[in-house]
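Q: Could you write out the predicted structure for this multi-component system? I'm mainly interested in how the pieces pack against one another.
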Amino acid sequence: MVEKPAPDATRRSEKSRRAIYDAALALVVEAGYRRTTIEGIAARAGVGKQTIYRWWSSKAEVLLDAFLDLGEQAAGQAGQQPYEIPDTGDLAADLKAVLRATVDELLDPRFDAPYRALAAEGVVNERLGREFVARLLLPALELYVRRLRAAQAAGAVRADVDPRVALELFVSPLAQRWLQHTGPISHAYTDTLVDYALYGIAPR
Amino acid sequence: MVEKPAPDATRRSEKSRRAIYDAALALVVEAGYRRTTIEGIAARAGVGKQTIYRWWSSKAEVLLDAFLDLGEQAAGQAGQQPYEIPDTGDLAADLKAVLRATVDELLDPRFDAPYRALAAEGVVNERLGREFVARLLLPALELYVRRLRAAQAAGAVRADVDPRVALELFVSPLAQRWLQHTGPISHAYTDTLVDYALYGIAPR
């Protein structure tokens, strides 16, 4: 891809923005969300506090943008932009693969610390929570909706099933175990969730 | 039940404890978790700060005990102590009934505010989170495990299903919608979750 040469000012502010994201994510991992401050982020990024306040109004907003950027970079490196859940024709296998990848991400401290901090802040701070959900969680859920609709078209999911509710059968248990420490998470666990969700727990 | 007459000191401290619980719950509902302080609870309860610190080390601990007590009182008034999920022989109907009651509770501000505050604090404060889960969430999940085991014995759930995982198909989606505002909660919603979990979303 050919990039247009950026004017100096744009290049400088891109560099500052990147430094601020890196500093915010590093501080949350090392010191925790509560001990992360705008001042601390500015000092570590080598910018003035006013540079941060020009773009964001709180550390939660900085962290939300930094985390979204982290996800976009990871997806870009993996050549998955824009990302879709694979459709190999085997719904169970496709869902298991994407949930296994999610487990790996949730167990990676680089993702876990900022994601957990944002999720927690979102629970008590309703405005941030709704932004976190709208920008981060709902777009991810929409990918499952599209994959389940394709499965309905292929006859692998009943036509009367609401995909937006059905996806929660495997997504929400993983989210709750991770967020509330109600149980361990593993590939075997998410595989089981997919099997139960597709085939039900009652005898067939 | 015949109660032993309490010595004056015990009666006085029971009365203080009750006043502290009431004050803590009322403050969290009215002012929010962040603006609730030990000082504020003490003032409203008409006790000294040191009375609170004699029994608890933080406002989170006070609130956890107050909330557990609220649940016990509600269950006691409804004659449901010790509580079990009903077994009418119709698993779907029994699960739908208990989840509908849970929806009603989650939509009741008296429960919502303290429960949400504790859940949020538990996400970032791992020690409190584990105590919250151990004392409040896991005992509730255990009731579903027992009901699903009875269903397995009656042939209504496959023998190879792990009840501890299976219950998450309907409990976790409700928990996530409520906690993270990812969607509305209603009786129709939890009824649908139970149907999907029991019979699966793939054609039978």
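A: Regarding packing and overall arrangement: Chain B has two domains: 1-59, 83-199.
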